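Supplementary Methods S3. Input chains for the assembly prediction are listed below.
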Amino acid sequence: MGEPGLKGNVCLVTGASRGIGNGIARAAAMKGAQLAVNYLYSEQAALKLIEDLKKIGIPVLAVKADVSKEEDVDMMFNQVEREMGKVSLLVNNAGVSLRALLPDTSVEQWDKVIDTNLKGPFLCIRRAIPNMLGQRFGRIVNIASIWGLKGASCEAVYSASKGGLLALTRSMARELAPSGITVNAIAPGPIATDMLQQELNEEERTWLTEQIPAGRLGRIEEVAAACVYLLGKETSYINGQVIAVDGGWTV
Ligand code: NAP
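Predicted structure tokens for the full assembly:
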């Protein structure tokens, strides 16, 4: 299968300052996309990414925005459209995790996880749709989780947010299919990033690794490769699908 060229497309990756989003931004840029890099708190990391990509001649823009806030999302899209052009490739990657028993979970914690992981993609997709409809082309990739496919003890809220994101993916795929827009999701298994580092101690990471048929944690580049594939023009007949990048965990 040929490489999916992303040239001529503006790609917005949310939560691209660190981890998986950073990797997706780099991979999409290497395929020729013009890159809008969203971040919230990690400004230095976002600027480092911008600097790296500019050095190799890639058009790139950093935009600070909280994806869970409607006005931030609107401002982010306005800025990208003004300085770069209309977004035709959207990657909803920004996310937060929460490890807690449900009875110990506060309403504030619930709101933060659901607002970031589910309301954020809703706001970004809603804002992206009119331009994609106008172009009769668009690619939306939602970064969910295997915990959205399976239940996760001590991560019920996170799991619910990602399960919701998968339902949103499938519904929007049906709604937008007639307009040349695809909406797919990636469900990563445990990937070596800050998120995993913060959530689990060494003993838990070892236990987790032993459960993975591949016998190791996933790499950021492996999630990024799947995402870039789904962003390509060639994948126009793949819609509403969930690709698990999990070393065989969910098989
Ligand atoms: P990470 O290293 O913790 O990075 C999270 C990213 O999301 C950061 O760039 C952060 O930006 C951004 N972010 C968080 N809240 C935001 C908000 N309200 N608005 C804008 N940006 C926000 O996480 P990761 O491991 O790369 O995870 C990325 C995605 O993959 C998440 O959706 C996560 O649920 C999913 N995932 C990860 C794993 C894993 O094992 N790592 C497994 C399955 C799914 P700032 O730092 O700039 O604030």
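The chain has one domain: 4-189+221-245. Residues 14-15, 17-21, 38-42, 66-68, 93-97, 116, 143, 145, 188, 190-191, 193-196 surround NAP (CB under 6 Å).
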